[in-house]
Amino acid sequence: MAQSDRIPVSHVATQNFEPYLSAGQPFGEVHWLRIGAAGEGVLYTGLWKHGCATFDYVFPGDETFQVLEGAVSITVGDQTVHLGPGDLVSFAKGQASTWAITSPLKKFFVISG
Asked: What is the tens place of the pLDDT at every residue in 43-73?
């Protein structure tokens, strides 16, 4: 992440990713744009990528993201959404989901709560 007078700046084509750990296990890769909020609550933004896989995931905060590359189907309860480049979606904190990434995924995300 580049800094411009302490304003986080990056680019969607960045190659600066690091392992993302969930419960101590590697879970894709992340490029952080922002970690933390100026006020109360949490705020995380950045890019996340993951290869083809199927896994269960519980959203740790309210999450909105845009798919930049790849394809994923996400099932919450009895509803499945199929997402590809350009699609935007939003999920509530605590929702249990099943992800099926069918083409390597890259997304820009915002997590708050």
From this structure: 999 999 999 999 999 999 999 999 999 999 9
Note whether 84 and 23 are within 8 A (CB).
no
Domains of the chain, each with CATH number or no CATH: 2-6+17-112 (2.60.120.10)
Residue 105: CB atoms within 10 Å = 24
Burial 14-38 (b: 16+ CB within 10 A, else e): eeebeebeeeeeebbbbbbbeeeee
Encode burial over 51-90: b for 16+ CB neighbours within 10 A, e otherwise.
Answer: eeeeeeeebebbbebbbbebbbebeeeeeeeebeeeeeee
Measure the CA dihedral 14/28/47/37, to 10°: -130
| Distance from C-alpha of 30 to C-alpha of 33, rounded to nearest angstrom | 9
List Cα–Cα distances, 73 to 52, 67, 69, 89, 105, in angstroms: 11, 11, 13, 11, 11
